Structure formats: C-alpha cells, structure tokens
Amino acid sequence: MCVVSMIGDHYGEKFRNPQQWPGLQPYVQPSPIVLPSPISREEFENLKREVEEMRVLLRRAKLYDQQNGEPDCGIEDKMALLRRVAKLVGVDLDASLGR
Question: Does residue 83 form part of some domain?
C-alpha cells in the first residue's frame, strides 16, 4: 500500500467529522434560511495548522513512495476532499505534491 494513500485515508476520516471543522462544512442552505455559525480565528488557525501538517506529510509520503517503487495509487477520490479542505484555509496541495 502506498503511504500517500494511507495518509489520505487518515486525514479524510478526520475532515469528514463535522466537529473537526465547524463552520467550514460545505454549506447547504436549509429552509427557512439559517446562516452558518461563524468559526473563531483560533478554530481557523488550528485547522490551517493541521492542513499544513498534512501537506508536509503528503509530500514526504510521495517522496517515500517514489524512492521505494510504490505505484502512484489511485487516490484522486481521497485527494478531492483533502484539496477542498486545504483550499478553505488557503493551502494548495497540488503545488506541494508536484502536480
């Protein structure tokens, strides 16, 4: 199993948990109109730190996989969620993964 895929699974499970990032959840407008609750600066910064940590781990994992002949795993479905979360806090995962 490639390491990039494993890290994608780990963070994907964390970011699917609504308590992990309140207020940054994909917003679907209910009826009647209810505005999402804003998040605090501290919550935003905590999520951004975690995304930065994930970005560093993914980069290291990609290098490890390349050095050990692991295939470029079909992880696009996993990465889609990670990219969306990273984009919310201003982090570009593709740039750090050489895409």
Answer: yes
